[in-house]
Amino acid sequence: MMKRFIVFLLFNFSLCSFSQVDNIGGVVNAYSPVTAIDTCENWLEVADPSVFSVGKKAVLIQMKGASVNLSNTGLFGSIIGYNRCGNYEIIEVASISGSRIYPRYLMERRYFVGGSVQLITLPEYNVANVNAVLTCPSWNGSTGGVLAVKANRLNVNAAIDVSGKGFKGADTLSDSDCYGGGFSPYTGYACAVSDFCGAKKGEGIANIPTAGEYGRGAAANGGGGANDHNAGGGGGGNFGKGGAGGARLNAVSCTGLFPGIGGFAQTYTSSLNAVFMGGGGGAGDGNNGQQTPGANGGGLILIIADTLEGTQVSISARGDSVRHAAVGDGSGGGGAGGGILLSVNHYLYDSLLIDIRGGKGSNNMAGFDPTPNRCFGPGGGGGGGVCWYKGSALPNSRFLTQGGKNGIVAWAGADVSCRFLSNGAQTGDDGGVLSGLTVSEGNRNYVPLILQACCDTFICQGNAARISAVGSGTAPLSYRWSNGASTSEIIVSPVFSTAYGVTLTDGTGCTKDTSIFVTMETISLLLSSAPPSPVLEGQTVTLVSNAGPGIAYSWSPTSGLSDPNSSTPGFTATQDVKYCIYGETPGGCKDTACISIDVTRLVKPESIAIPDAFTPNGDGVNDVFTILYTGNYNQIRMKIFNRDGSIVFESKEFAKGWDGKFNGKDQMAGTYTYFIVLSDDRTELGEKKYKGSLSLIR
After folding, report:
1. Are 410 and 325 in contact (CB under 8 A)?
2. CB 331 within 8 A of CB 378
């Protein structure tokens, strides 16, 4: 009594807090396939944007897309990777432009559009009374199969039921009578419809190529179709594996010993946080049109509520059972249970029934007469589904998780070897109940991912360049350069021109790429002479450099050069000399090349004439004492002394003589003494010395 009083007070408080009450039932969601998605740019495109509204929420979910083993072995259909199948999250529509929808917050998960992604409206209520059965449309290959509601208070007065709304059970197909003539049955796991090797597989989370849609191998969580002849189909899988179909027994020819394999179980973990509809059952093999199809799997239910209340609350996502028995052919497998997700904070009900059972495989009425070879194959049972809830416990709850039962040979007139037996058909494995559900809903603001790099640059050979990249996006940001560096700024020393790529990765795993080109500018000056060293004294020599267009250059020394602005100037060789060219590129790279020219002197006849008198009287005749010399010496030291032994004149030049003055004053007429030394700095000739008397006459 106290409990009901507390509930009454809480209910009245709720009415005071929220004035709006909605009575709901039937289908409350709208659906559209997602045709394109860019989680890094934070937008998605839908086929029908008209069903969505700005400010409203929606469920984004990927239904299929898993990759499976396609080898024609017992591993056919086993899951290699989920490829984001089962990912889902809640988004809020910030804006709509054409067919493109922009969420208000950053999409937290990744999706593969080729995996049947759909966007589903998420109706939100203050108080919602479920007064009629609440359900969803059946999965049609691109939309449906999912019921999602959000409420502050969800009062459940009628069933919430998506049983049989999940992946489709396999259709039937009458094949030819006895594969391989009846004595060579098909033992493989996959084939095409045109091969008439067996029945069709049930639908699951993988898209199976048309060349493998038939045959006993499972289709991920879809049950395998029975191989020819008259064997039973496998049940669909979800949390629990589907049961295998039954064989046709006792046949001498047209054997049916290879029934459909049950659909594989799915992985449910908090880290993966993926959910799946129940797989469809595989069809029974038949040639008389009396086989049965596989049954549909259960759909998905997502309830987000602060409070879930009611008296006897019933929430179901069962896999369908095959509705009738096969008569003269094989039987189909049951559908797997679906998924029920409860993100609820408080529970105010008397009892809660969760039903995620797998569907029953089809019975078989054996055949037309009780002969032993009429023991045809029953269908396998569907695996159980999953119930995943928030928190650690659901109070006053009953969970129906059992795998679906297998079919049997149900005809009382059947041969005793199979009458009321399964012929090997198996029950599906049980489903599971998990706690700790977390429904992903973004609350981080979207920050566009932008990357700018600076700058394309020139460097000289042997030098280093500092390059950098600056990005923005959802934190944390990380950089990765093509040379392995991981900082935003790096110093590089390439040995040749190199493009450095950089990738920016943000906290969501999105990436942006760009590159910087570092041009290696090289200058390598070469300098030669024509003719090459050594050269003869007096010979014209041309300096030859490779300073081409775009290279600024200069010579040192410039003396003696015919044209200092030319890259190939000439000069006349008079003595050993060293010339250097200095070059610079537009980017500032510099280089120097030098060459030494050795000059070979010509041997000249020796001749020297030293006057013994001169008359510095200004008449222009014999006014200066000079010597006349031809020969191989190129240096002279001459000194003239008066009678007191004082130096009145000295010179180191052949052409410079004495004008008879000292310190600007005429010297007295008389006898003077000269001392001359000849030498050569380019040869190993010894010095020559001359000493004599000189008369100054006035």
Report:
1. yes
2. yes
